[in-house]
Design brief:
- The protein is an alpha/beta fold and 223 residues long.
- The protein is built from 7 helices and 7 strands, in the order H-E-H-E-E-H-E-E-E-H-E-H-H-H.
- The chain has a 7-stranded parallel β-sheet with strand order 3-2-1-6-4-7-5.
- Strand 1, helix 2 and strand 2 form a beta-alpha-beta unit.
- Helix 6 packs across helix 7.
- The model has no long low-confidence stretch (mean pLDDT 90).
């Protein structure tokens, strides 16, 4: 049985989730980098992260940062086209590619209060040519030393915390962005993962949680 304090903490987190902000990791093949990216996403209120992996498989996460994967949904796509179609159907309106190009804007100069996807490429090549072409804007982090770029997971954190700063100033964390049902179902899945998995297998609805985080089964119709 979860404690009331734990349930209230979960509610506070879900009430600050930003469903119209996400990251798209394009073939980021080092599991510890993807894990770190997901930790940053959770820290700024992102609930779902997207990744492009041509093999379609899930990475093996680094155990040292496994806690992030408990609270973040990871959706894996085989191609950029597939990922962007899925995100467009969910209402994303701008794609920002972290990409060093002559047209790149300082990452602080773009508006993250809009529904936004931040796309980051892999550790060797950065974003693909295809992604660079379809992006609405290229963004970069000014570097004042000898190295030209940050590690992909560090760059993710820098960009996302600028997004958080802008969204906090705009009041986007002040009121829940998820529906009551979405918050209830996510909280149930976090508090009762085994029960939630069983209900998903049966396509059964999740129960409504009580104020203390408990739940009661609906009475069976015995007529």
């Amino acid at each position: 049985m979860p404690t009331t304090d734990r349930y209230q903490r979960i509610l506070e987190v879900l009430q600050r989730r930003q469903p119209d902000l996400t990251i798209l990791a394009e073939d980021v093949f080092k599991p510890h980098n993807l894990s770190a990216m997901m930790r940053s996403a959770d820290a700024v209120g992102i609930g779902t992260v997207h990744a492009i992996n041509p093999t379609g498989g899930l990475p093996t996460f680094n155990a040292t940062s496994a806690s992030a994967e408990k609270w973040i949904s990871l959706r894996v796509h085989r191609t950029l086209k597939e990922a962007l179609a899925r995100l467009a159907s969910a209402g994303a309106s701008q794609l920002l590619a972290a990409h060093l190009s002559p047209a790149a804007l300082d990452y602080r100069e773009v508006d993250y209060t809009r529904p936004t996807i931040v796309l980051l490429g892999n550790e060797r090549r950065g974003v693909s040519d295809e992604a660079a072409v379809v992006a609405d804007h290229h963004i970069s982090i000014p570097m004042l030393g000898m190295v030209r770029s940050l590690n992909v997971s560090v760059a993710t954190a820098v960009i996302l915390f600028e997004a958080q700063r802008q969204r906090r100033a705009a009041g986007l964390y002040d009121l829940p962005r998820l529906t009551t049902d979405e918050i209830n179902d996510a909280a149930f899945a976090w508090l009762y993962p085994d029960e939630a998995a069983a209900r998903l297998r049966l396509a059964a609805p999740f129960p409504t949680l009580e104020p203390d985080g408990s739940y009661r089964e609906a009475p069976t119709d015995r007529s």
